[in-house]
Amino acid sequence: MARASRPLAAIVCLVVITAGWGSVLSANPAVAVGSTSVALSAGPAAPVATSTGGQGGPSAASSTQLLVRTSRLRLPTPVTRAVAFAAGSSIIVAGGLTGIGTTDAVVRIPISGGPIATVGRLRYRVHDAAGVTLGQSMLVLGGGATSQDAWVQQLVAGRTSTLQGRLPVPRADLGAVVVGSEAIVVGGGAGGRADSRVLATSDGVHFRLIARLPVAVRYATVAAVGGTVFVIGGVASNGESSAIQAVDVAAGTAVVAARLPMVLSHATALTIGGSILVAGGRHAGRALDSILAIDPTTLGVRTVARLPQPMSDAAGVVVAGVGYLIGGEAARPLSTVVTIKPS
User: Buried (b) or exposed (e) across 257-293, using 16+ Cβ within 10 A?
Assistant: First the structure.
């Protein structure tokens, strides 16, 4: 995690609906969400070396066009490196980095219209954190401001977050996803060093070691399909990585299963239509506008669409089959909300 004056990455987790926020979220009238961009067709396939030395097959998204739009929704303050949660017909965005520093704001974005409002605060303001929903609890794990933290914070509607627990050690620039009844924590680290340990927790209090990544990375993007957690790209000790690492949670193993066509970090992963979509990110310090699709079965990779502009570090969430990229950064933090869905 870099100093707050140098915006970098938001590692993003996909989370599920949380009923505990219903009283805050129920009063929003439905109105249509607008857009400004156009659909983009699938691009050419990019060959990917698999762990057995073969070529990845076509992605499940290769025959489907994606409709990529900049919606009319706007964040009240441009933000990057936040975490996002799905909550009914709204998205909850917590923390992140603004143009003046790390924020403690917890913001509600009604997907179908209504006012965007601040609905809570973080007890410890953080960016570069991870977020998951376990049971009824939205948890913000790790992150930091000018240093890395180990806090596990539970969001509370209309109030300041409570301290749920602590990671075994401070960790920022990390990712987390839910597999079954557990949150799987991967990547990130502290003091500029990546932590290879893959942890599992069912409550945000107790953590167990389930595997170690072959390539320890920070600023990776993470997705779960079935019982496998995919850790995509990131920054390793020798620079940006092209590795697609697969963690088998039940078996407790982690391997480099395939590789991207180029090194990539600071991207956002969304699982839509059976494919893992990797949106934006950075390559050699340059923000990207590409959307890659990874077939989780064959690990084939191809470019399937373009973002309205190059961007990285967006918070991401999927609601009812539609992906949302919230904020992020180009030359500076963004206030936009971009939608991605099959056309």
Answer: bbbbbebbbbbbbbbbbebbbbbbbbbeeebbbbbbb
pLDDT at 6: 39
Nearest Cα to Cα of residue 116 among 313, 330, 327? 327
Quote the pLDDT of residue 271. 96
CA 38 to the chain's CA centroid? 24
Neighbouring CB atoms inside 10 A of 247's CB total 26
Antiparallel, parallel or unpaired: β 268-272 and 208-212: unpaired
The residue that leads in pLDDT, 35 or 289, is: 289
Phi, psi for 24 (deg, rounded to 5): -80, -30
- Collapsing DSSP to helix, strand or coil, 20 comes out as helix
Q: Quote the DSSP letter at residue 249.
A: T
Model pLDDT for residues 170-218, shown as the tens digit of each residue: 999 999 999 999 999 999 999 999 999 999 999 999 999 999 999 999 9
23 membership: H or E segment, kind and range: helix 22-25
271 contacts: CB under 8 Å, gap ≥ 6: 14, 223, 224, 225, 277, 318
pLDDT mean across residues, the chain = 85
Inter-residue contact 96 to 80 (CB < 8 Å): yes
User: How far apart are the C-alpha atoms of 329 and 310, rounded to whole Å?
Assistant: 9
- The two tokens of residue 275 are 């494919």
